[in-house]
Amino acid sequence: MELHHYHDTNRRGTVERLNYASKDENGTSVFKYANIYLPYGYSSGQQYPVLYLIHGGGGNPDAWLDCSMIKNALDTSFTENRCKPFITVFPGFYSHDPVRKSQVEENVERSNVLRFQQELRNDLIPAMDKTYSTSPCREARAIGGFSMGGVTTWFAFLENLDLISAFLPLSGDCWQFGGLGGGKETEKTAQYLHDHTVEQGFGKNDFRIFAGTGYEDIACPNLTPQIEAMKKYTDLFEFSDSMEEGNLHYVLMEDAPHMYEKVYQHVYNYMPVLFSCC
Ligand code: FER
Fold it and tell me: Ligand 1 mean position to 1 CA, how many Å?
């Protein structure tokens, strides 16, 4: 579904900063911020579900807001009643400002998004639930991200499934077995996603995965085979083209290369079903 631009100046959400303390990879204190989108009419008399939306490699908490129409998509969806209002958090997964080489350093990026799982659990989710009127349960938490943010989302599925129930990995694959693992170690990755989840005692009704990318996206050759391999584990992953059924969804967009300007449309499409239980 294509988003039409929304220009009602009276019913827009607001963006503010949340400052919080965390730890870097050496255990040293670091001070972080996240951008917090509060829906129009946000009231502490109500409890809101929360979507954590993660930037790509080299990015920061401002990337989604700077580079896409995500804010407009959120404003439109709430104003037009496509879904009930929720809070969106835009954190940064780096503990320090990234020093990016022209070539992606897969292991550096991978260790950053892995470290971020601890930050999410120990610092960011607690700070959110303390500061805002959130609904503090896993059914009311979703996480998504673009590119390395998609990689972050798969790691959140593996490491933080007790805290989060909906996952939107967009143009990013699972790097459990190293960079681009969804493409390079496809079968092993799918099996680990299955086994690790079953071993924790989770079943098919405990989560929903809403994945997406574009045919022209550089991550498509890594994400597509991973999703195909996951589909075979039908005891846990129930693929469906209907967003209301099953727990594994995959949307491939036309004319969509690896960019926020395109990828945010997946978030828009999935918004109505993200928190259907709340
Ligand atoms: C992918 C996942 C992440 C991918 C690229 C990235 C090429 C990240 C790229 C970057 O940080 O620049 O599947 O495919």
Answer: 25
Provide the residue count of the chain: 278
Question: Quick one: which H or E segment has residue 204?
Answer: none
CA 35 – ligand 1 centroid, Å: 23
Q: Is 225 in the pocket of ligand 1 (CB under 6 A)?
A: no
β-sheet bridge partners, residue 23: 29
**Which residue's structure tokens are 């407009």?**
72
Radius of gyration of the chain (CA): 17
66 CA to centre of own chain:
17
pLDDT tens sequence for the chain (278 residues): 566 676 777 899 999 999 999 999 999 999 999 999 999 999 999 999 999 999 999 999 999 999 999 999 999 999 999 999 999 999 999 999 877 777 789 999 999 999 999 999 999 999 999 999 999 999 999 999 999 999 999 999 999 999 999 999 999 999 999 999 999 999 999 999 999 999 999 999 999 999 999 999 999 999 999 999 999 999 999 999 999 999 999 999 999 999 999 999 999 999 999 997 66
CATH number listed for the domain at residues 9-274: 3.40.50.1820
Is the separation of the CB atoms in 247 and 208 below 8 Å? yes
The 3 state secondary structure assigned to 93-109 is CCCCCCCCCCCCCHHHH
Report how far ligand 1's centroid is from the alpha carbon of 150 (Å): 9
Q: Is the CB of 104 under 6 A from ligand 1?
A: yes
Q: Is 54 in the pocket of ligand 1 (CB under 6 A)?
A: no
Residue 91 in contact with residue 54, Cβ under 8 Å?
Answer: yes
Q: Between vectors from CA 56 to CA 101 and to CA 16, what angle results, nearest 5°?
A: 120
> Domain residues of the chain, as ranges?
9-274
Instruction: Please give the model's pTM, rounded to 2 decimal places.
Output: 0.97
